Amino acid sequence: MVIHLLCLLPAIVGALDFMPMVQVTNSGNEGFNGHFIFNLTEDLVGWKIQIDFSKAVTGLTSPVGLEYVKDSSNETVHYLVNKDHTGIQTTNPQFDVMVQGTMKDGNLPSAQAYLQNMGHDNFKPPIPSNTDGTKYNYDEVLMKSIMFYLAQRSGKLPADNPIPWREDSALNDRGQNGEDLTGGWYDAGDHVKFGLPQASAVTLLTWGLLQYKDAYNASGQLDEMYDCIRWSLEWLLKCHTGKNELYIQVGDGNLDHSFWGRPEDMTMDRPSFKVTSDKPGSDVAGEYAAAMAVASIVFKDKDPAFSIKLLNHSKEIYTFGKTYPGLFRDSVKGAGYGTSDYKDEMAVGAGMLYLATNNSQYLTDAESFHQHGNQWGQSWENKYTASMVLLYQITKKDVYKQDIETTFGNWLPGATGPSAVPYTPKGLAYRTKWGSLRHAANQAFLALIAAEAGINPTEYRNWAKSQIGYILGDTGRSYVVGFGVNPPTHEHHRAASCPVIPASCSHDFLDMKYPNPHILYGALVGGPGQNDEYDDVRTDYVRNEVALDYNAGFQGAVADRCRGFKISTYDEAPWEVEEDEALRTVYEANAPLILENRSESSVTSTYNVPLTNDFTVPQLMEQAERLYDRQGHAFRLNLEFGPPVRLPLLGRPPRTPTEPTRKSYQGVISALDSISRRKSRKRNWTSTFPYRSAISSYGKLRMLQFYFDFWDRFVDRSDFQYCEMDTDSAYMALSGPDLISVIKPHLLDTYQRALVGCCRDDFEPHWLPRTCCTKHAQVR
């Protein structure tokens, strides 16, 4: 592990002072009584006392403490820890600890005691520096989110366990026939291992690793991420105990929730639940298959044998779910987190298997399982948003693009109608009160993947950025434990609320007013109410609990933000080729855009931004804007190579990416030149590209934006054609009598809303006049 963490060191009350034993009396039969009276300087949240006697003492007891045997051979040194209901002590009265014991020689002993407050663990991970100069340290967020999953581990922990306040737990978790079911993750602030939400979290986490591996690597968290997801994957594999047998839960929710304490201290029964051919569960089978399939891809080079094992299990589990359709909530009594549909999980499972195998049958299955149209949103229970994004990634079919635009059209600001997601006054997309932040974060993650696939990239990326910004502190507080300004300190989490081991824990620590003794770094809490109201209260499990699925999409979105600022550098352009070779190389090899930064001190840095054939002008603009915002001074934009742009040429339909042309490259260069001229304080630009076409007006850049942000989104390409375009105007032919007649049907409602409402400067799309007020009645 790269993370080097500081050891636990509870505070010693009164520094290194000690208290003598007073009021020592003989109680008969070689027994004695004594008192240690401490004048507290701070409230105790769990405590431990080391007592050094002058002679051997046995049978030590106390009305307020339990003897903790550290060394049974040493009868002069004894340890007491608080009982369940004596751990919290305030500074108002003196803390009187009475002890009773047996002396061996009949002479009263003397003693001195050290009192430790077990409510402080002093554990602080090293924080990576924010070398990107961004508003938030995304490397830190990524590292701490992984730490949250490490804190949720169950079973025998490794020797290099980086969470020092966690120890081995639930070592007797077994299946109904004695199968080893140790390991995995605890679900939330409790200690049940629920298979469906755990597998759902692994699917999103691993999809994020597949999508943003470069960001994890650049942030120094790649190995940690592999270790993180592997812990859960190993448990999911254990759960597959037969061809048509899959364990889906360990632990009883009712028994578990009646206990407030550490998982290390659990003594209740922990029954296991499974699905079989007689008791099917296609929903959980589909999710297990999805998690293992996408994991087989990311481990293919890292650990080929493990990858093959994952893929084989994924195939068999998927076949089981397909052959014996059904919901486990209908067949397995007592199991939690049931769903109302299994086709969404099966769609994602089949889609991931297609990515892993290239077997067309899986793609056929995925498309047949998918449900078209608007979807509620991504959660552990509903996966249709994931399936539409995944299927568009794979097929690029318009039908999935329509699903995405319809669904996200209801999530973005300004939506109306029964399916529109409301917003809090400060800008959170508020789907529901229970874990409001996780829904926005999950949706933001999928919006970023959709943007990566070329769907409304600027709009979706800006929206995702706003939701992640809300979580990290844009409103004045962070909702991530241990990160940022005013983060939660009373999150609903049993282990984090308990004092340092070996002090006893109980329900008193659920109700206490004090912050949790342990900082559950990286955990995303449920979140605020519909009016941005939020109280950091431990008993509020609706707004202040943490869970595996809360962090999953959030972490993927943060990885995207990391990647946006992890731009590798080159000292000089890596290629020098002739004109025709350049065009061919660009198209075949996706050569990069070269961004050169030149400060006033003439220090030059060249940045390599990876591009793909589907990269569009708005994405190029966004990369350039990001670079400028990060550098804060003049930079030079120089296109050595770049992808063909889907820019319609004069008097003819748009070209496809298979037709790289000189004019399409000039379009990209013109856009980038416009940014450089607007942003920089220098104007003496030069270029090594032979077809550079510098322009002096911002107008052409806006025309390009207009094409990509409005025309290409709202109107099918078969329904319009550019006739002529110059710097500040465009002449177009439509296939219908007016504009509204050619708007894509599934976006007609969004278009009409833009014309009649949404009286905001930042509303998208903002290209056409609105009727809300005079200010917005003009085309911008």
Detailed description of the structure:
The protein is α+β, with helices and mostly antiparallel strands. Helix content is 36%, strand content 13%. The protein contains 23 helices and 21 strands. Strands 1, 2, 6, 8, 9 and 12 form a six-stranded antiparallel beta sheet that branches. It has a four-stranded antiparallel beta sheet with strand order 3-4-11-7, with no helix packed on it. The longest helix has 20 residues, at 304-323. The two termini are 52 Å apart.
Can you summarize this structure?
The protein is α+β, with helices and mostly antiparallel strands and 780 residues long. The protein has 23 helices and 21 strands.
Secondary structure tally: strands: 21
The main sheet comes to: 6 strands, antiparallel
What percent of residues adopt helix (DSSP H or I)? 25-40%
CATH arch. level architecture of the largest domain: Alpha/alpha barrel
CATH class of the largest domain: Mainly Alpha
| Integer average pLDDT | 81
Q: What fraction of residues sit in β-strands? A: 5-15%
CATH topology of the largest domain: the name is Glycosyltransferase
User: How many domain regions?
Assistant: 3
C-alpha Rg (nearest Å): 31 Å
The tally of helices reads 23
C-alpha geometry? elongated
Give the terminus-to-terminus CA distance: 52 Å
Outline the low-pLDDT stretches.
Answer: 1-7, 566-618, 627-699
Q: Report the structural category.
A: alpha+beta
